[in-house]
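To whoever is covering the structure queue this week,

Two jobs came back overnight. Logging them here so there's a record in the thread.

Job A:
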Amino acid sequence: MTSPLRPPQFKSHRRLLEQKLSDLHKCSDPNSLVQIHSQIFRLCIHRDPIVVSKLISAYSLCRLPFSFSTFSRMQVSAIKADSFTYSFLLRSFHGHLRRVEVIHSHVFRLGFSGDVFVHNSLICSYSRAGELALARKVFDETVLRDVVSWNSMVGALVRAGEIGDARKVFEEMPERNIVSWNRLLDGYVKVGDMDTALDLFQRIPDKNVVSWSTIVLGYCKKGDMETAKMLFDKMGLRNLVTWTIMISGYAEKGLAVEASTLLNKMEEAGFELDPSATISILAACAESGLLGLGKRIHASVKRFTTQISNALIDMYSKCGDSDEAWIIFEETIVKDLMSWNSMIHGLAMHGHGERALDLFARMEGEDFMPDGITFIGVLCACTHMGLVNEARRYFSAMQKDYGITPKIEHYGCLIDLLARRGVLMEAYNLAKMMPFEPNVVIWGSILNACRVHDNVGLAEKVVDELMKLKLSDEGNFAIISNIYASAAKWDGMAKARLKMRDDLGQKRAGSSWLELDDVVHEFTVGDRMHPQADRILRMVSRLGKHIKQLCEE
């Protein structure tokens, strides 16, 4: 009796490579891709157009900057490209207009201008580069359109915020699939038109998990967690994305108990957080300050990537634990620009200006090129430390040394610092001369500094500028009223108070909140509805007496 054949214990390297090559275009692991590419060269199969096309696709998926150089070598070696090559290549350069135009010229010159696959890729690439008009031109020139062509155009219009035009194209479609419905639904969600989004959602013939996830996301963004949860509970099939949307929605609203409870249910359903879900929930914790939930997510991480480390640095920094953020930063083996930016901003945010500037110097020493976001953190650090001359130097270095054009946020940081330090006229003149229209935040910072430094004349000019913006804020009126009172200009104070009453009516109550044992407590001025209000007020009174006693000593 013959024994059954056993599977071979050894597979040839050639057979293993063939298996890898068959799925090469799906490869998303950069390290594996580099190894496969070296094997392709060693076996001299790098001239095969099918292999080259798959290589370009893989580099696109891995976000590695070698797809264009691979294409260039292909041209030099006289390897003929096909329509799939150009489709994969275009996917690599979403957002890079110049390279998309170069590829488009190749397509036209080599006779692929009538290929529907290439045209669909061009529509997407131009729209992602912010060139809606060029995307529309390609669509209009496409003679034989398929459903992907129409979907690409709807997606391009949605991406540009042209939801009305997207709806028109959608209505003109000769046929639709679920992608068509979902793209238009996504458009209404992005512009916040949830009434139309819900109406469209109800019309979708065969809703899939993307349809449900999109409508749930829309209500989470709107802050209507009750409707979001109702829709979430109605879903027949949920995936990790849907769970993440709901948990992040609760976290962003500061609803720690609900977020933790849903996280428990997700784990009971057999789902584990992947890197994308982890980053999404950590970002929501950072926005609302939910340190407890953020720590729980941190404890669940099994494999730390640079992106997850960055999200943790940002979360701990925004939740006030800059020491833990620093530990994670130092433990991050492969740091990218976001790692440095998050840590510099975190230090600056919590008053550690000197450490933030030292870290910036270390960043320069390690040959990391800063960007505009880096310099916002640097200028904020200077503001916290009152370093006027250093801030002027960094502001100048942005353009001179790094070629970064200052944005309104950079001007705002410098103006705020100058105003705080009493250099009021320089701050005012900079606001008037900068290439942007000063906003209410910039004028408000100068006005507040006028109160501190008792500059009534400049305060009146600033109030005039604020009135031109037609943006009334009770805080600004209160500041100018107090400035008049300090200078014993009672007529001016009375006019400011009258203006505040006429323009604003009842002043909105200020509020603050804190997290305690995974519960967020909100307090508003004059509100005694909290169940522990009496005990809290007694403790505040005791603290006030204690502080007064310390000051007297």
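Job B:
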Amino acid sequence: MYDQTNRSTWIKGKQRACLMLLLVTLCVLSGCMPSWLLGTSTANRAPTNTNKNITTTDMSSPIHYDIDATLDERAHTIHATATITFRNVFGRSLSELLFHWNVDSYRFLNEQPTMYKAVNERLRVTLETDGNKGAAQVDNFVGGATTHQVVVGKQLAEFEHKRQMLNIQLPKKLAPNETIQLTIKYEVSVPYGAQRLSYMKDYVGGTYWTPQLAVYNSIEGVWNQAPVYTSYNSDFFYAADYTVKLDMPANWTVVTSGQQVSQPAARTTDGERSPEHKQAQPHRQHIYAEARGIRQFVFYASPHWGVTERALQQGGKLIAVGSQPTDDQMNKDIDLAQDAVHFFTQKFGPLPSQTLTFVEAPLREIFDSTDGVIVIGREGGQNPLQPEQRQMRILQLIAKQWFQAAVGSNPHTDAFLAEGLSQFAADYYLFERKNVPWPQRVQRNEGSSGGNSAHGDASGGGSNGLSGNVRKFEAVTTLPITLPLTKARDQAEALYRWKGSLAMAIWAQEVGIESVDRVMQAYYTRYSGRIASVDGFLNVVAQTLDSDHKGRLYHLLNARTPL
């Protein structure tokens, strides 16, 4: 006889499942990815449980990377073991886990990101001129990862490493809310020159040296496998927790993400922790660092750096690391950073990290902004940036701590959120603090070589000292800012950064500064530590102000005409 009670239970269960699917779908459409991204970012905050066993309840994210790495500074390689604890929060069973190996984008010269091609070519010519063998030196400009072994639990696992991805087949399906631990043994060859991971004489560092869990679309059941985009920063990672041990040369100053801590207890094979007995070898040092809720773990090191610190007005500190950390240029940079962090904190919300570290790169063309760490080269040589150009670069890099590190987004579909909002934040600072006018609408001047852009000339001049190619900017004025990255191609920066920030400046002048502050604070509060979308940002506008203001901004972001 058919059990009516069981039938009722089955119907209720099905209704709950349908309701959950509906809620997840609405969450995705509103720009909030269904994941652990329900708490605020805690990047660079010292964990409270540094001497406890790490369990899933201690984690701010269901991904924890425990990495033990050794730098061979002579061979320019990193030998590492990553023990990854992952809890399945995707609502469906998984038979595989996919990780990005973005360092593989340096494997072939013709596939490397275009951003640094010119400076690397200049370096190559210099090496050949100095008498080094050009053919041998070419090998130094490439790098990549080699995966040696993957262990899931205590069982060797099958894996495939190709096209910048590591595909790991699980011995059995991972059910929803189940936790798994896997260990990846690998080594990374670090390229010479200018890259987001590179080495030069007495310098090494960057990102991309760890495997990164790919973003999973739980509705369609597919992993993001997009490779590094050659002409634009296309990083798309979850916020995760890290415990890292670095074996480094003893006399080198080492900067890392997160907080460097005293030696923690070591993890044993059964997941428990026991005292670490191994000491560093002669002329070596062990660096221990822990971080919560960051998108990528970076390190930078050199034997020639000094360190200086300053207190931030709202708490925390700024750290400057470089060959001359107290000279006039670094002092000006830190003065600007100190005021900018205070301004952005008032306008948007607290700095995502307790510490913001500025690291001096060996080349002025190298600059980057990751969780709690900003890299910027020293000016000098040919065609140095003008002071107002350097100021603008620093401001945008600082703003990315809020709109790229803390708030994540998919650069292939929502690049405006990181580039446009961070550039708008820099414009906002200059308008409020330096009395620099807002960027203006595009005005074509047929008598000039390129016309007047809202953001200055190709070398970064103009009243605001912004760096944007005039002709390229004008070429994208008929393209919508919401255009996918694959269609924007080499016009991406002009479209997302310059036209995007111009759209925000126009909208800000229409709605007023107080309304802008309310929206930006609400957006940051909602999406810090999460993954946002342009639709989600617009929904914040509607909820904070009204649908008319949302409609106006929607029109500006999707305009196929000059702004």
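Note for Job B: The longest helix spans residues 4-29.

Please reply-all if you pick these up so we don't duplicate work.
Q.
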